[in-house]
Design brief:
104 residues; 0% strand; 2 helices; mainly alpha
């Protein structure tokens, strides 16, 4: 059964709404990535805890920043895919309407 025009519009609205949520989340995660990249503790901060901990902290900091950066990219890709899906549905629907009008 085909969706009604109202259901179709609601589905497009939902796709675009979800796309915006993903895009907004990507911005937030990108800000977290920037913050993670700005976190730097001097090796002296670890002097009471023993050697090697400063290097482990730096490695962990870089890993977290990298994961956040990757997550940002994935979120943008999901947002873009949802927008493209909405555009495709609209184009296909418009083409179907035109075909029906030409038939009658």
């Amino acid at each position: 059964m085909n969706p009604t025009p109202e259901e179709f519009r609601a589905a497009l609205h939902a796709l675009r709404g979800d796309a915006q949520i993903w895009a907004d989340s990507a911005v937030e995660v990108r800000l977290m990535c920037i913050t993670a990249n700005e976190c730097h503790l001097a090796p002296e901060a670890f002097s009471l805890l023993g050697g090697g901990l400063a290097e482990e902290y730096q490695a962990l900091q870089k890993k977290v920043a990298g994961l956040l950066e990757g997550g940002t990219g994935v979120m943008v890709d999901v947002s873009d895919s949802l927008v493209e899906a909405a555009k495709t549905y609209e184009a296909e629907d418009a083409a179907g309407v035109h075909r029906m009008k030409n038939t009658w």
